[in-house]
Amino acid sequence: MADDVKGKAAEAAPFWRRKTLEAMTGAEWESLCDGCARCCLNKLEDEDTGEIHFTSVACTLLDGDTCRCSDYPNRQAKVPDCVRLTPEEARTLPWLPPTCAYRLVAEGYDLYWWHPLVSGDPDTVHQAGVSVRGRITAWEHDLKELQELEGHLADWPKEAPDAGRRG
Predict the structure, then answer these.
(1) Would you state the pLDDT for residue 65?
(2) pLDDT: is 92 or 12 the higher one?
(3) Which of 55, 87, 109, 125 has the smallest set of CB atoms within 10 Å of its CB?
C-alpha cells in the first residue's frame, strides 16, 4: 500500500522532477526555457583563465520586450554561433546562468518559484527581475568592433536574484 502511494505521488510530480533531460519530449524540453534570455547575451572569455564575462549586449535576433528569439526556427542559420542546447551541454557549458532551468534540472535542483512552469505565468520571470528585459544596453549588430563588448560588462547575468532563491 505504501509503495502504491509513493508511485502515485511520483506520477503526480512535474515532469522536470521525474524525468532526465534526455527522457523529455521536445515540448517538455522547450518549456524548460523560462524566457529570461540571459543566454542570449554576448559573453567574453578570458583567454588566460577561461573565466566567462557576461555583457549586456544582446543577440541581434533577441526581442528585448518579450525576451524571446525573433526567429527561433532559423536562428542558427542567421546567427552561426547560436548554441542549440543539448542535455550534455546543459551539464557542461560554464556560461549557463545559475537560474537556467536546463542547468538546474541537470544538476538535480528544482525550478524557482518564478519559472512559468511553476507559477503558471510567463511574466513572473520578468517580475522577479531575472530576465534581461530593461537591461540590454546594445545589440550586437550595433557594435562596430568586438572590443566594444568590454564597455558593456555586466555581473548580474551570472547571479541569482534574492527573490529567486530555491525553496
Answers:
(1) 95
(2) 92
(3) 109
